[in-house]
């Protein structure tokens, strides 16, 4: 099956700086692909090359099989995008701004109303964009990206400037989009928690390099399982666990204990509970810890460090 987006050894240099360094990524059709990286990691630069707005120094991009260098317009027509700089006209209303794009795409007024409705902006559509809040501009940007229902949505930090309700709405919306419309979503973020809540797939970019890519569920499952527990006496609990050869680690919400290879989580929880209770440390809660993207990130960093030390 053709991927929604594929890059092949994609690089972009700005002077001496290699902003994107040999990125080969695959965004499957109908995925919500979270493109994760710190500030300056190269997310926006990559997205601009996917859109054909920035020419790669080397490498290639294909959007639904269309080569962006050779079939730029056909490829661009597959994508609706929301980038950092919206480029709206402040002295025009939200509706007028969308109408400009709709006209370029050969779409009518009803499509403008449809996308305004989707982002719940119909009531503010008559106001000038110059008077919009950051969150309203962001919603309008999403509405514009969706004009004509393109098969691929490319969203650079889409929850920027949204309030908690707006973020929750956006997440729900993006997450359900592939199932409802068959679309593919590529969204960038520097927030692990953000990506974790919406994405089916993840790509992690660090200093221009794609250091990890895959299905989120599989990446999580690959990590060694852990239990998390809350006790009435952590100091005592730690001593008891250490004496049994376990290595508890203090976490924000309690103590975490890694399972031994092949150990059953339920059996381990029962054994640890018995150990602590008999040893005088009451156990308030114990259970498997949900692995987060933070764990994945840390593991990548660790394995790279080990590689560097071995080299
Ligand atoms: N037009 C440009 N000229 C020179 N350097 C640039 C240009 N655009 C980006 N860079 C540099 O390329 C690197 C990657 O930038 P990019 O904007 O792609 O990062 P990002 O991952 O989107 O970061 P953020 O989370 O802050 O948006 C940075 O070091 C940045 O300074
Ligand atoms: Mg950026």
Automatic annotation (TrEMBL):
Flavoprotein recorded as keyword: no
Origin superkingdom: Bacteria
Matches recorded under SMART domains: AAA
Domain ABC transporter: 5-232
Signal sequence coordinates: none
One Pfam assignment: ABC_tran
InterPro entries according to UniProt: AAA+_ATPase, ABC_transporter-like_ATP-bd, ABC_transporter-like_CS, P-loop_NTPase
Recorded GO MF terms: ATP binding; ATP hydrolysis activity
PROSITE patterns in alphabetical order: ABC_TRANSPORTER_1 (PS00211), ABC_TRANSPORTER_2 (PS50893)
Gene3D superfamilies: P-loop containing nucleotide triphosphate hydrolases
Keywords recorded for this protein, A-Z: ATP-binding, Nucleotide-binding, Transport
PANTHER family in alphabetical order: ABC TRANSPORTER, ATP-BINDING PROTEIN
Assigned protein family: Belongs to the ABC transporter superfamily.
Protein name: ABC transporter ATP-binding protein
């Amino acid at each position: 099956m053709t991927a929604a987006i594929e890059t092949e050894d994609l690089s972009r240099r700005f002077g001496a700086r290699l902003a994107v360094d040999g990125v080969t990524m695959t965004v499957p059709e109908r995925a919500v692909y979270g493109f994760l990286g710190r500030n300056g990691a190269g997310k926006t630069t990559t997205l601009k090359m996917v859109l054909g707005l920035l020419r790669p120094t080397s490498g290639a991009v294909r959007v639904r099989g269309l080569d962006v260098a050779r079939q730029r317009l056909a490829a661009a027509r597959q994508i609706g995008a929301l980038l950092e700089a919206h480029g709206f006209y402040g002295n025009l209303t939200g509706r007028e701004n969308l109408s400009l794009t709709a006209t370029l795409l050969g779409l009518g007024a009803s499509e403008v109303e449809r996308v305004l409705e989707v982002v719940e902006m119909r009531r503010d559509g008559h106001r000038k964009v110059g008077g919009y809040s950051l969150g309203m501009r962001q919603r309008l940007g999403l509405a514009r990206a969706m004009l004509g229902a393109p098969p691929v949505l490319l969203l650079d930090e889409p929850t920027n400037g949204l309030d908690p309700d707006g973020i929750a709405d956006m997440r729900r919306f993006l997450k359900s989009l592939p199932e409802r419309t068959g679309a593919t979503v590529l969204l960038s973020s520097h927030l692990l928690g953000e990506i974790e809540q919406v994405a089916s797939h993840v790509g992690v970019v660090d200093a221009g390099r794609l250091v990890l890519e895959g299905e989120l569920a599989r990446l999580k499952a690959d990590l060694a399982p852990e239990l998390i527990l809350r006790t009435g006496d952590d100091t005592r609990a730690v001593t008891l666990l250490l004496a049994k050869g376990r290595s508890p680690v203090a976490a924000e919400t309690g103590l975490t204990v890694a399972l031994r290879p092949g150990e059953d989580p339920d059996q381990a929880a029962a054994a640890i509970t018995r150990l602590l209770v008999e040893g005088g440390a009451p156990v308030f809660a114990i259970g498997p810890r949900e692995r987060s993207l933070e764990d994945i990130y840390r593991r990548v960093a660790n394995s790279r460090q080990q590689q560097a030390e071995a080299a």
